Amino acid sequence: VNRHSPVTRTAGPVRVVGTGLLGASIGLGLATRGVDVVLADPSPSALALARDLGAGRLPQPEDAEPALVVVAAPPDVTAAVVAAELAAHPAAVVTDVASVKAGLLAELTASGADLSRYVAGHPLAGRERSGAVAARGDLFAGRPWVLSPAPASRSEAAAAVRDLVLDLGATPVTMDAAEHDEAVALVSHTPQVAASLVAARLRQAGPEAVALAGQGLRDVTRIAASDPGLWVQILAANAAPVAAVLRGLRDDLDDVLTALEQLACEGRGAPAPGARTALARAIAAGNEGRARIPGKHGSAPTTYAVVTVVVPDRPGQLGRLFGDMGEVGVNLEDLHLEHSPGQPVGLAELAVLPAERSRLETALRERGWTVHG
Amino acid sequence: VNRHSPVTRTAGPVRVVGTGLLGASIGLGLATRGVDVVLADPSPSALALARDLGAGRLPQPEDAEPALVVVAAPPDVTAAVVAAELAAHPAAVVTDVASVKAGLLAELTASGADLSRYVAGHPLAGRERSGAVAARGDLFAGRPWVLSPAPASRSEAAAAVRDLVLDLGATPVTMDAAEHDEAVALVSHTPQVAASLVAARLRQAGPEAVALAGQGLRDVTRIAASDPGLWVQILAANAAPVAAVLRGLRDDLDDVLTALEQLACEGRGAPAPGARTALARAIAAGNEGRARIPGKHGSAPTTYAVVTVVVPDRPGQLGRLFGDMGEVGVNLEDLHLEHSPGQPVGLAELAVLPAERSRLETALRERGWTVHG
Q1: Could you give the CA distance from residue A205 to residue A198 in angstroms, rounded to a whole number?
Q2: Is B282 an 8 Å CB contact of chain A?
Q3: Which residues in chain B belong to E strands, given as ranges?
Q4: Contact A347, A339 (CB under 8 A)
Q5: Which residues of chain A from 95 to 124 reach within 8 Å of chain B, CB to CB?
């Protein structure tokens, strides 16, 4: 199951409080590695579902004290549950998975809880579906998991939570709570608001208009299906950082609107100097921002040269192509296949280091391939 | 290839002017059905690529006059190219694929062109990638294709374009040009602006912030990678309807911003009555709008089985995998690579016909590959 390391680092029992998507996925991932996971949830039916899924077992009277407690409760009760777990299990390390950190840490500090055994956490993983039913043991594989130790956190506590993160296949990222909250305002909370606002425009649309919806609209609005109750908690907890990002977005939107209003009048004879430039600037800025999103597993965006090869749709042709590439001695950095069933040919787009491009093109042409640069 | 009807309705020769994504996809779809497709493009390299892909052939001196001309040129030259094609081919029916219709029809009417043989069209299909390289003959399968006949359009012309649409597996939808433009402002142009604005916020973000990006951000900003030159043309051509939708979006955004600013002050003791309700209303409105998007109709004709193979991150491993697939004699229908730099392995997801799945899994395991079903 774990291809990264054969060693399970986490020592059980691990108590998981809250068996929604994240809690049940953590339980599944640990239980699959043989860690003893004890589940808790105020909802008996949620608890039973997580248990039946294999996310862990129910508590028994003779249970040993947990070594680690993971609080996967809703955001607005996380501080209270963390404080209660720290008090109830005085030897355990406690962590949480809430998506906003600064307010939580302030609340816990004010509560007088023993924060030497606490390390705040936030796995950047999720699905548009919620609940244990959507849980997967590999939900965190390859995803960042932010750890924000409090000033009082002991290094052994940080090490234990780090072990949990590594066992679940995630990448631990240590960040200051405020820095984390600004980052998620940008990469998570602002996209949620934007998706909801775009989707909200559809409420008054006629059926013939929404029938024209394509993949673009579906992608932009997918997360607009998210739970309002959860998102009010998240946005309220991170209000100032989200407002700061949205103010910038509103200013850009006003520029686009001004340009469009000028262009709408242009048709009636009014000149619209600079309006097209303003629109081009907005779309190009989006290109630039979009290009900053790293590859799926955190790789830096690297610019490769792309060589496009026409591949006949017959068994073995791709194998022949890669065999030829191997003979040429060019390493493939990335690959994209364009292929539709029933079409006589497909295209293989081979990403290689720019310095290798022309040698590869020549060698493939020599071997009979049709190559487009 | 065509599951809807065994009969090809379109009579060739069909002249496709413009061999970008849409033109080349139309050529591919028709050529696969045995229709004689003649390609034209001002760019010789774009033309050669489309020809090599099987989207059609180059014109010959002895060619018969086309029965149908499809203008798939950039939006801002579509009117001129349609008028030129109507004049050059006085017996042909002419259609286009531009994404804004009212201004185009006004321009053509003013030009004095013979609109009895012209029917405006707009296939609601596309990809964030452009050019013939991204073309697919099944691009239009199950998608709406809006037809906006001009008052002068003859019914035989409308029938010929309708046949083209049906042959490509799309669903003809007749709409008034103004009604069409308002609909695409809502379902296509506004999502594009929103995606670009969200992505633009990422330009100034630190690498540690963008490293936290997840699927939500990726989906919301996918179309932010679109071509600025094309989108300036589209937005400028549909300025008034897009501005009307964006004004409503900006008002909703201001409500969210006001609520967030109240909540940011709440932490410092100021009450924020109604702020949470305003946020909940915005997210719930998004739920409601999102739910109005109909399910995908008629798409995904074939469901492939996916075989996931663990690929060690060493040069030549992918070539070895495809070589082995070639020996086994299983044809690859689609492929997705999961890169994990810094991790010792990656995953190749191989899409094959369901009937081939178990044979491929067995054969790859015999050859030493780690395979997940």
Answers
A1: 12
A2: yes
A3: 14-17, 37-40, 68-71, 93-96, 118-123, 144-149, 171-174, 305-312, 334-338, 345-352, 370-372
A4: yes
A5: 103, 124
Is residue A288 less than 8 Å (CB to CB) from chain B? Answer: yes
**Residue A254 amino acid letter:** D
Q: Contact B260/A239, CB-based, under 8 Å? A: yes
Q: Which residues of B touch A216 (CB under 8 A)?
A: 126, 128, 188, 191-192, 195, 222-223
- pLDDT for res B334: 72
Report whether A270 contacts A264 (CB < 8 A).
Answer: no
Question: Kind and range of the H or E element at B224?
Answer: none
Q: What is the mean pLDDT of chain B?
A: 89
Q: Which has the closest alpha carbon to A164: A98, A116, A219, A94?
A: A94
- Strand pairing class (A14-17; A68-71): parallel
Q: Which residues of B touch A198 (CB under 8 A)?
A: 190-191, 194, 249, 286, 289
Distance of alpha carbon A233 from alpha carbon B347, whole angstroms: 36
A231 interfaces chain B, CB cutoff of 8 Å: yes
Asked if the C-beta of A258 comes within 8 angstroms of chain B's C-beta atoms, the answer is: no
- For residue B165, pLDDT over 80 is answered with yes
Residues B8-22 have a mean pLDDT of 95
Residue A38 neighbours by CB distance under 10 Å: 20
Strand partners, B352: B305
Q: Is ipTM strictly over 0.90? A: no
Task: Reply yes or no on whether the pLDDT at B131 is more than 50.
Answer: yes
Q: Give the CA angle between residues A361, A364, A368 to the nearest 5°.
A: 130
**Any CB–CB contact under 8 A between A249 and chain B?**
yes
Determine the pLDDT at residue A57. Answer: 96
Look at residue B7 in the predicted model and tell me its pLDDT.
83
Tell me phi and psi for residue B364, to 5 degrees: -70, -40
From residue B30, how far is each of A226, B11, B36, B311 by CA, in Å? 41, 10, 8, 38
Q: B262 CA to chain A: closest CA distance, Å?
A: 8
